[in-house]
Each structure stands twice: as C-alpha cells, then as structure tokens.
Amino acid sequence: MSGTPAQEAAVREVVADAGRCQSDPERFLPLHTPDVEIVNFGGRRVAGREALGVAMRAALASPLADVVTTVEITGVRFPSEGVAVVAAVKRVHDARREPGGGGPALPVASGQLTYLLVEEGGAWRISLAQTTPTTFWRRAGCRAGVPVASGGFVLYGEGTK
Q1: What is the per-residue pLDDT for 152?
Q2: H-type helices in the chain, by residue range?
Q3: What is the mean pLDDT of residues 99-119?
Q4: pLDDT per residue over 74-90, tens digit each?
Q5: CB 3.0 to 4.6 Å from 105: which of 26, 62, 96, 140, for a disulfide?
Q6: What value, to the nearest 5°, has the Cα angle with vertex 38 and ends 49 and 89?
C-alpha cells in the first residue's frame, strides 16, 4: 500500500513540527497520540502523552535543555490505511560539556529514528518513536568509520574523530 503525496506531505510536516517544537511542550505534546510510546537515545521508555509531558518538562528544567536534535527523513512508507512508518537519522547537538571543560557530554552524535504515525480524525499523530544510537568500533590509530574485529577498541559515535 502506498500513501498519497498529500498524506506523505502531512506526515513529513508532523515530523518537522516535532523537531521545531522539541523545546515547547505545549506545541510538541499534541503531535502525539494519548497512548504514545517513546524510547529515547538512552533507552528510556516513556508510555503515554501525559508521562511524556512530565519527562519533557523535567528535561527542559535540567542541563538536558542544552541538547537539541535535528531529524533527516530517509523514507516514508504506508504499510496499511492510516498508518505511516518514517525512517530518519537523528543528530544530537550537545552544548553541554564534560566536567573540567572536556568534549560534549554525550558520546553519540547520531542515531536511527523510527516513527510510527497514525491518522486520527484527518490528522496524523506520532504513536511510537524509537531511536537507536549509531555507533561503530574503532581501534585507536585506524581510519574513522572502519570497524575492526580484534582488541584495542574504542567506542565512537558516528561523526566523531
């Protein structure tokens, strides 16, 4: 099954709105279904729009407010009527620093994001979001991005040096 160009545009707009509203709970939360499930970069699962609001407001009141993300959609498909699956790359921009003035506090710079959106009353809403960090192993001194299969590993996030 494939969606119409108008459906795909509407789904893409909801994802874009989620990015634009990531620091504004009053605009962000209505983009989600009441029973939304979110699994974030760190593996924390949040069930329900109300719980998402509590978690979001707590994060925005903490140093996590200095972490923002961007999303690049890589594909949209419609497995059945009123259901859209969005594949995307999420990039993390961490303005926080490690204690002592080191590098960014988060070690991973990007992840694979999957959204499940459902159409309710003519409007698309996010029902599920899962982000899996994108990492690779690199031996000190090897070319960045080349996986190695023996000792001396260092875990790097995509895009790190």
Answers
A1: 41
A2: 5-20, 25-28, 49-60
A3: 75
A4: 999 999 999 999 999 98
A5: 96
A6: 130
